[in-house]
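Dear all,

This email documents one entry for the complex benchmark we are building for the journal club exercise. For each entry we list the sequence lines for every component of the assembly. Then comes the predicted three-dimensional structure of the complex as a token string, followed by one or two observations. Please use this as the template for your own entries, and keep the labels exactly as they appear.
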Amino acid sequence: MNLKEIKEIAMRAPQLGAQAEIFVMRSQSLSLQVSDQKLENMDRKNTQGVGIRALVDGRMGFAFSTVLSKESVEYTLRQAIENAKVTAPDQFNILPGKNVAIGEKETLADVSFEEKLENLMLAERKAKDYDPRIVKVQRVGYSDSLAEIMIASSEGVEAEYTNSYYSAYVSSQAEEDGNVEMGTSYDVVRDFAKINFRNLGEESADKAVSMLGAKPIASEKLPVILDREVATSVLEIVADILSARAVIKKKSLFENKLGTKVASPLITIIDDGTLQDGVATAIVDDEGVPTQRTVLIDSGILTSYYHNSYTANRMGVASTGNGVRSGPSGTVGCGPTNIYIQPGVTSKEEMIDSLNRGLMITDVMGLHTANPISGDFSLGASGFLIESGKLVRPVRGITIAGNLVDLLSRVVKVGSDLRMYGSSGAPTLLVDGLSIAGE
Amino acid sequence: MEIFEQITKDDAKEILEVALSGGGDFADLYVESRTATSILCEEDRIESISTGIDCGAGIRVVDEDRVLYIQTNDLTIEGLKKAAEEAALAVGKSRKVNPKELVESDLVESTVEIDPSAVPISEKTEAVLAANNACRACSDKIVQVTVGYVDGKREILIANSEGIFTKESRVSTRFSVNAVARDGDVVQTGYESRGGVQGFEVMKGAEELAQIAGDRAVKMLSAKPAPAGKMTVVMSSSAGGTMVHEACGHGLEGDLVYRGMSVYAGKLGEVVASEKVTVIDDATMEGKYGYYGYDDEGTKGQKTVLIENGVLKTYMTDLRYAKKLGLEPTGNGRRQSYAHRPVPRMSNTYIAAGTDDPDEIIRSTEKGLFVTKMGGGQVNTTNGEFVFDVAEGYLIEDGKIGPLVRGATLIGNGPQVLRDIEMVGSDLGFAIGVCGKEGQGVPVSDAQPTIKIKSMTIGGLVEEEDK
């Protein structure tokens, strides 16, 4: 199936009393894992699918299939129309209007299978050789993926673009005096050359070794440094609160807060579907709407939510190009593209130095249990105790708890060290007074 | 897609021959066709309905310590052979290996009371709307209700070079309610779900379940934050089984044990828990969310006693790790779909009921936290540290259930917590979940009786001191 053929089927929808949008994705991916300097696992996936939205008298229906023949796509269209007829009408349901966008055809980097393997073996060696207390490298893996997407609709959308990414990770295990600690480092990037395999190995080993001997501290309220990986995880939950869909559904603490202060004046959050080399960068979103850079929080003031075509239509604004699908079988949602907290001016060392007593958090557990609707979070945590401006010992077996909105307003320093972890990223943050539960 | 008719035993044998044409010790073919109907109700109306079909196959070749996996959506015999060729090419040896003759096992078909495919869509949307209405009727403080309903049928065909040839067809249905309540600036939620290898009968009592979710969201509005620090914990049988899933389940999975990534590695025959604790994984519990006839490698699902009266008996294995560990396969090789290689996973996992009176367990606790509903959890199997979310809990004061407290995460060390289980009740309650190991979601159910744990850290808020 090519774009023209898909377009032809979409154009048949009006004869069936509907508007329709056809989303086709074909992807190929490779995953490798190395163990003891040998290839252990290799997975090659060739995936395809079609997802169709049909709009009939204000009612929206979905259908999908993994069979891409003309007959199958036509059948799926009829299914979507049938499904639309049993949903409730909504005057704001809409399929985006005319937009023709043909992206440059991307291919995966010209890197041989052997070179990928050698890089993984290098990462494994660098982890193993980092310190005698590294007893094993648990997992060393690499994957790449290229997806070709086509969208055509009866309303004039014709889009074709590619998504790609490369990722690698290393997990190292350190042991000393019966203590076992694990450290994991990973990269997800748009450019193969940006993966630093040597660094990933060393960083994961360092994370594991530095945690050896970790034990809890007593329960107390302390200033907390969230390292940039943890800050990124926190941002990913905060991102849910910034979704216009969550606002419409009364599931956002930022409802009715546009133009007001919702965070520390040091916090600026940006969603940018056009970010150079961003993992989520594309010319259009999954509805065929052009992507853009949107400032969501500007120096603590809520300036915008992010929108898909439905939320934009309902709130009387323009879509910000944040219509997302999890794949052909997913319905269209509203999600971030590349999202990050803008870096500040303080270094991590200065933050540590500024604390008489505090905690630096380097890892959290149970993040999926944080509740973006109530904003409440309570997470298992590990990191380092800070006394008199120095990291004095590793800590684990504790929790940090509070409310996300409260946390955003308590940020007193923002690091200059922004790092993207895939499509989201943050610098190190210093937060005043978080509840720590321990012994 | 009629995969059972489309792919014959002879076809499967030929595909396996191609897969092993480049050498290798073992090959298998996994073909799956899945149909699904999902309904979403939000803002008091049916917002979306989606239906579809997802079918594909995975071909795996094991060669010494290497595992090569090729996935395709092309289910023609030609397409499958092409994928098998790709696998053989990746193995890249000249030695051709012949698979054994395939022996077909009995087709396993799940039995359901009401086949969802025979229920008109209007009846499904009515049931979903009724649940929505029941939830909204709880209180005018409820500002949003999301009701999700999914039913589907999976057909799975498996053939391997050791002669296994199995077919299974499973119908499953799942229903969930999330209520959002608001009072001024305070927002709280209540969540309930139910499902299994069952049909539309899952929706019997859906309205009552929706009310439980709605009531929880509302009462949480006035609950105090949970305290911070160490406390005795009593977990009700109604709380679900996330604790056992995280505290010991994952650590007993054969791959993690073999890789030295489990605190339970090398401890077979040793005491790893209080003698009151018996832990069982049982895929054969019909109707439960983690039920299957064959696992995703064609091994019969079974009941496996993992820990008996505190003593570690065995690990959960798939074919590969059973061999590596020198154990019998326990039928725990599972995958999310054809796009994933199988890994050892739990099915329906529980702490067996004991002899203590559940009420007496509460009465015997001077001060503690009574957990009546758990959410999700996570474990670091390497050092045994785990967390689970408490969605509903109460303080216990002088042996009596006291005030409701807001959700908090509990953190503990698996082996320590298993040893600290002081009482085990005579009741047992199941809850469903989707386990996310290695990024692959598979349906599981977990259960436990009412139990008392000497001490765990509760991740609540530190009270502000008046200065």
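Observations: Residues 336 and 430 of chain A are 24 Å apart (CA to CA). The first strand of chain A starts at residue 19 and ends at 35.
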